[in-house]
Amino acid sequence: MTTCQTSLLDLESRLLNVLGSYGAAAVALSAGVDSTLVAAAAFRALGDRAVAFTAVSPSLPRGEREAAIELARHIGIRHQLVETRELDNASYAANPVNRCYFCKSTLYAALLEIAPTLGVTLLVNGANLDDTGDYRPGMQAAREFEVHSPLIEAGFHKADVRQLAEHWGLPNWNKPAGPCLSSRIAYGVAVTPERLERIDAAERWLKQHLGIDELRVRLEEHELARIEVPPPALLRLVTSPLRDDALAEFHRLGFRAVTIDLAGFRSGSLNALVPLVVQQQTMQQ
Predict the structure, then answer these.
(1) What residue ranges do the domains of the chain occupy?
(2) How far apart are CA 246 and CA 258, in angstroms?
(3) Is 90 exposed, middle or buried (0-12, 13-18, 19+ CB in 10 A)?
(4) What is the C-alpha to C-alpha distance for residues 27 and 123, in angstroms, rounded to an integer?
(5) Distance CA 28, CA 125 (A)
(6) Would you state the CATH architecture of domain 3-167?
(7) What one-character DSSP code corresponds to residue 25?
(8) What pTM was computed for the model?
(9) What is the DSSP track for 238-282?
(10) What pLDDT is attached to residue 228?
(11) For range 215-233, the mean pLDDT
(12) Cis before residue 241, ω within 30 degrees of 0?
């Protein structure tokens, strides 16, 4: 047996043992690789004592609901769609730096209402060890609702997740990270369905015309769009006719100004501003 095979068996054993110890589990399943691996492991370890839930709301990018349905079907796990209404929560819609806390609290509360009717009371998420090094207010909600993180308990980093997901033949094993659309809106700028739809449409347009999946359209104050693409794509984006077409499309969608971030694409770039936003909010109190 090769070292790689031994490593995969170890990863598999650790994760299945953790999930098996739960007895039953409700998995918060997005269409991302982390929660997909957890759902697959839960089904392998628990069978029909595992169920997956996918939250449906305006902050979900188009196509992700259908992707989650197909992934659950591929795995074989029971699957339920749950309509969450986090935008009805004024604390969430105001978009404070801990917006994710209100999002996850709404989600977990909804799941705890439904899961027991399916014979499950323990909730699990797809957080891995790499998530513990970033600003993640949603983790506080997980602690308050006693949500388990089997990937963290099994000692998984993101690379481990992708490695085992590929080994198990999960179709999204190499899918780029895809956080909710609200994460594109600068803290303090209200989250609205119109803004979420506009961001989603702008990102889909860019992906189609650039032929890449890893990019972001950030919404700053005064309806300003800040585009993040990998550095190799910058020249193409600022060269006509694509530059002119992009400008026309973004204006059509309702952005008042369009900028390109020379630092390029980086996940979670708005979190770099968290200390500044907290300081400004403190001064205003």
Answers:
(1) 3-167, 181-284
(2) 9
(3) exposed
(4) 6
(5) 5
(6) 3-Layer(aba) Sandwich (3.40)
(7) E
(8) 0.89
(9) TSTTHHHHHHHHHHHHT-SEEEE-TT---TTGGGGGHHHHHHHHH
(10) 97
(11) 97
(12) yes
Q: Quote the pLDDT of residue 177.
A: 85
Task: Read off the tokens for 206.
Answer: 């860019």
Long-range contacts of 40-47 (CB under 8 A, 24+ apart): 40/75, 40/77, 40/165, 40/168, 40/170, 41/15, 41/16, 41/150, 42/77, 42/124, 42/150, 43/75, 43/76, 43/77, 44/16, 44/19, 45/16, 45/17, 45/19, 45/20, 46/19, 46/20, 46/22
- Does residue 148 sit in helix, strand or coil? strand
CB 132 within 8 A of CB 143: no
Candidates 123, 131, 130; CA nearest to 148 is 123
Phi, psi of 203 (to 5 degrees): -65, -40
**146 burial via Cβ count (<10 Å: 0-12, 13-18, 19+):** exposed
Q: What is the pLDDT of residues 234-243, one digit of tens each?
A: 999 999 999 9
Helix residue ranges per DSSP H, 115-259? 138-144, 150-153, 158-167, 193-210, 231-237, 242-253
